[in-house]
Every structure is written in C-alpha cells, then in structure tokens.
Amino acid sequence: KQEVTQIPAALSVPEGENLVLNCSFTDSAIYNLQWFRQDPGKGLTSLLLIQSSQREQTSGRLNASLDKSSGRSTLYIAASQPGDSATYLCAVPQGAQKLVFGQGTRLTINP
Amino acid sequence: GAVVSQHPSWVICKSGTSVKIECRSLDFQATTMFWYRQFPKQSLMLMATSNEGSKATYEQGVEKDKFLINHASLTLSTLTVTSAHPEDSSFYICSAPMGSYNEQFFGPGTRLTVL
To answer: How would DSSP label each residue in B88-115?
Structure first.
C-alpha cells in the first residue's frame, strides 16, 4: 500500500527566502506525482504534475523534482512571498487514478 | 487548468435530514470523479470513486448507504449524505482527472455543518 510522507509539517520563513518542501513515497512504481496548494477553507489548486518519466517540472517560481528510485520529490519555491502562505500537498496515484496524499506542509511567509 | 465546480459551497442542516452536494466538470468530460472529506488540520481522505453509468466504488469503512453517489452524466456527480448527524460535519471535496496523464482537478469544496 502506498504511503506518502511530507516533511516538515510546518515551516515559517521570512519573505524573499528560497525554500524546499519534501515529499517521500513508499512504492516507487508511480504513474505521476502532483503538488497542490490549499488555502484555508478552500479546495486544492494543482501546481505541478511530474510524469514518471520526468525528473523535474517548472512553473514560474516553482520547481518540482522527482527521484523515483529513492521515492522522493521536492518542491522548490524561489523568492518566497507572503501570498505563497498556504498548505502544500503532494500526492501520487494508487493504481491509475486514486490519489494518496501526504499530510501536507503548512507554509507561512512572514513579511 | 480545467475547472471543477461544487454546489453548494456551504450548507447547514438539521440532524436527520439529507443533503445533496453536486460536483461538475465545467470544461471537460469526466467518466470518473472522486469524493474526499477533510477534517480540520488534516489531509484529504478518499471516500469513493464515482463512475459514470455504473455503481460507485467505496473505500473501506465508508458506508455506501449513508453516502449515496450518483454519476448520471459525464459532467456531473452528486454525493448525498443521508440522515446526516453532527459527526458528518466536514469539508467535502470532489476531483476529476483530465488528460493523458490523469492530472487531477479539484472543486472548491463544500462545508457541511450538521446541527
């Protein structure tokens, strides 16, 4: 059974810093990996999807990497801003589509 | 990205009543949709997989007679919480996959409060 772990559970940094969020999964036979953002009381916004054949994906100030063999993914946020404050979730499919989520990293960017 | 809507965004009901939540894919068709619930400060828990034209598949521990799912068209799935009780109060979120890599798109969620 796939298990997903995110470290740290919470992170607070000053504005402008670069930061890394970590995600690990137990079964390396994944189809893809998605990173999401969730604001309080809201749904999930898809940030990046990395296909199993890819090593990384970039979108603006976000860069996600994937190392299937070690069961790890990282989300790099450059030049953080207060608007980046949210909970970040990573998820991998179990089977074709059912997602297994990590517990999330609650990020606070201090002005 | 693709858009998934949910209605209502919040609902308050009395104990014992039933509540229906709709999930729509607005700009794509979805033969499969997923329903999750989320408790405060916790991650999402998959409840069931909604399949267009056939029965839903429920996760272990989820009562299918309590959480009725209907996927009547390629753009609409509904979750009905029957005989709701205060412990059913939660945030319910749906998702639908799109594209060849099954990227998942989520609705904005529905906050259910049962008094």
So the answer is: G-EEEEEEEEETTTTEEEE---EEEEE-
Across the interface, whether the CB atoms of A44 and B111 are under 8 A apart is answered no
Rounded-to-integer distance, Cα A98 and Cα A92, Å: 8
The per-residue pLDDT for range B40-80, each reduced to its tens digit, is 888 899 999 999 988 999 999 999 999 999 998 999 999 99
Q: Which of A42, A89, A93 sits opposite B43 (nearest CB)?
A: A89
Virtual torsion, Cα B35, B39, B41, B46, nearest 10 deg: -30
